[in-house]
């Protein structure tokens, strides 16, 4: 399943709860009865009658139309800028071409293009001759074959062509050919909610539908993010997948409660009170204007639905969440649970105490003793990726500039040596010792003083000195700024390489066994939580499998009343002795933390260990007010959780 088709939940979502639990709350929210005109303007609704109501799923609304319009506008803007730049470059190239044609006529005559001995560097002049207008095809030939920046032009033109192709073809595909997901159908008579996707039926009774909601409140309400419906796999086992109705968007906090919950209020009102409570008349189902965009109902739709409902009536449920590290190709979403709830499973995982060598190979570990365990919470792979990218760009820019330099030198060097030979014939071999010659020959006197023959190569240092201090053919005068302009991009990446290689700072996560807390710090912020209240994030491939990806800690530094979650990700790879070491699984790191907190250092390590600190593994310095901030954070966390428990009760 492609990434844009995955049914995901925000990282702030909490585990599922029965949708029926919010029945009374949703029924209390005022909901005006819709007439025919209002039903047409109610975007989530696609159809309603006395028996069935259909609600759009996320992605079935105006999102694709907005995306198509944005891509077309973006492509037009890029195309306009690129056309302007192309016209300017074409004008500059035309001037250079005419100058080179004039130079070729001056040296080889009017019919220079007929000479078989024409230098290779002037071969492009054969194709242009005395063109009076700027030809598009002449520009392309010069641009990709003889320009000093031909490699850059080729790459940029290809990238721009691909960008414009994508920006024009993707909206065309989305608007005309992308299949629309079928809506969520609510059957009032049977009290079920169902839909289908790629031949699979997803259904659940209203009393068995699970809901996922945000872990924080907006306008004194926890917003629902998705509903869980059931299907069966190849082994006839129940699996639960997430489906999100199309939710109206509002930036007004006073109105967001009503609009964000509108589809769910509509569904509950219809299931409990019928069509008469929400609509004055029936409203026909909106079908795709192009039949090939409609996803057909599976041929065995009734059989699949009967099997799933029979399994639900028999008391079968989807497997409860359990820890695993093996990934799957099924839909994934991000959720979290309390670390202490998984304590039993994590403690049962086999893990022998590590010796010094194993601790050194354990990439996330910074240090460990009887009280503290310090973990590195930023992935080294990010640093190495950025370092590799900076090096790659630096090498590319440097190679491109060197190629331009070699091409320019190959063009100018024979002409310089020929001019030196001509002056030798006219004024003698030692004309560089004479003081009565014209100052315009000072550059040639410098070259002649090197004692080179016509066939000898000109040293790079001499060629650069000549370009910096003397005129070339009476046309160009080069300065140091010319070379600085050519190599500034190469020099631009040097600070990034130094930073990623030697001054990259890592964030540390500290596990304090004595106080049973976990805390970390970043830029002017401290995050801390008690072990009993720490949550860890995990990717649900489906309910039987969960992949931990990090822990969640509280933070109240930004505002005295603000409580925010901080997601601490662990490193996955370690670069050691010019090879990648095997990565520690995320579940292994969670088990390491729990065993240290519950059983102490002896359960995970045979010795005290501290990784040597240097430029490469330097970390962010601990703030001076860490302890006071931790104390304040824990107090506010306790107050927040007490208030939340009171609200839930």
TrEMBL record:
Q: Which residues cross the membrane?
A: 66-85, 151-176, 381-398, 487-504
Its domain of life?
Answer: Bacteria
UniProt keyword annotations, A-Z: Membrane, Transmembrane, Transmembrane helix
Q: Tell me what this protein is called.
A: Uncharacterized protein
In which organism is this protein found? Xenorhabdus szentirmaii
The major lineage groups are: Bacteria, Pseudomonadati, Pseudomonadota, Gammaproteobacteria, Enterobacterales
């Amino acid at each position: 399943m492609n990434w844009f088709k995955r049914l995901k939940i925000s990282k702030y979502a909490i585990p599922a709860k029965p949708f029926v639990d919010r029945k009374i709350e949703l029924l209390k929210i005022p909901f005006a009865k819709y007439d025919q005109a209002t039903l047409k303007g109610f975007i989530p609704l696609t159809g309603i009658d006395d028996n069935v109501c259909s609600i759009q799923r996320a992605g079935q609304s105006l999102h694709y139309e907005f995306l198509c319009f944005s891509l077309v506008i973006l492509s037009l803007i890029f195309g306009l800028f690129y056309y302007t730049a192309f016209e300017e470059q074409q004008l500059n190239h035309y001037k250079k071409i005419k100058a080179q044609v004039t130079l070729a006529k001056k040296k080889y005559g009017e019919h220079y293009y007929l000479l078989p001995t024409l230098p290779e560097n002037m071969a492009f002049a054969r194709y242009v001759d005395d063109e009076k207008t700027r030809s598009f095809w002449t520009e392309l030939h010069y641009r990709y074959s003889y320009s000093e920046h031909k490699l850059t032009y080729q790459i940029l033109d290809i990238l721009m062509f691909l960008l414009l192709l994508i920006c024009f073809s993707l909206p065309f595909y989305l608007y005309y050919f992308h299949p629309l997901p079928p809506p969520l159908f609510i059957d009032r008579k049977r009290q079920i909610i169902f839909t289908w996707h790629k031949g699979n039926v997803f259904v659940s009774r209203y009393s068995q539908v699970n809901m996922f909601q945000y872990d924080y409140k907006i306008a004194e309400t926890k917003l629902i993010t998705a509903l869980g419906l059931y299907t069966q796999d190849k082994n006839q086992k129940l699996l639960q997948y997430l489906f999100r109705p199309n939710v109206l968007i509002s930036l007004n906090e006073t109105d967001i409660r009503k609009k964000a919950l509108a589809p769910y209020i509509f569904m509950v009102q219809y299931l409990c009170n019928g069509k008469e409570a929400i609509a004055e008349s029936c409203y026909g189902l909106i079908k795709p204007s192009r039949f090939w965009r409609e996803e057909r109902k599976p041929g065995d739709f009734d059989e699949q639905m009967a099997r799933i409902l029979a399994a639900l009536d028999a008391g079968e449920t989807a497997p409860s969440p359990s820890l695993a590290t093996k990934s799957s190709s099924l839909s994934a979403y991000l959720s979290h649970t309390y670390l202490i709830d998984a304590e039993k499973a994590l403690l049962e995982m086999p893990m022998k105490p590590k010796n010094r060598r194993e601790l050194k190979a354990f990439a996330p570990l910074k240090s460990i003793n009887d009280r503290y365990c310090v973990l590195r919470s930023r992935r080294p792979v990010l640093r190495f990726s950025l370092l590799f990218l900076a090096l790659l760009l630096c090498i590319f820019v440097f190679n491109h500039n060197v190629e331009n330099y070699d091409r320019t030198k190959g063009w100018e060097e024979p002409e310089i040596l020929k001019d030196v030979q001509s002056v030798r014939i006219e004024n003698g071999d030692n004309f560089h010792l004479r003081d009565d010659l014209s100052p315009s020959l000072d550059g040639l006197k410098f070259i002649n003083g090197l004692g080179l023959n016509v066939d000898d190569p000109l040293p790079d240092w001499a060629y650069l000195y000549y370009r910096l201090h003397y005129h070339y053919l009476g046309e160009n005068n080069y300065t140091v700024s010319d070379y600085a302009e050519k190599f500034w991009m190469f020099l631009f990446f040097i600070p990034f390489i130094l930073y990623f290689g030697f001054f990259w700072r890592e964030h540390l996560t500290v596990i304090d066994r004595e106080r049973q807390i976990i805390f970390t710090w970043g830029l002017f912020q401290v995050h801390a939580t008690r072990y009993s209240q720490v949550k860890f994030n995990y990717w649900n491939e489906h309910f039987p499998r969960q992949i931990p990806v990090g822990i969640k800690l509280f933070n109240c530094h930004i505002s005295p009343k603000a409580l925010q979650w901080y997601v601490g990700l662990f490193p996955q790879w370690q670069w050691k002795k010019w090879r990648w070491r095997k990565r520690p699984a995320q579940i292994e790191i969670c088990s390491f933390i729990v065993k240290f907190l519950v059983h102490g250092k002896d359960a995970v390590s045979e010795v005290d260990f501290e990784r040597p600190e240097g430029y490469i593994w330097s970390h962010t310095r601990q703030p001076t007010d860490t302890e006071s901030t931790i104390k304040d954070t824990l107090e506010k966390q306790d107050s927040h959780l007490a208030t939340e428990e009171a609200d839930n009760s």
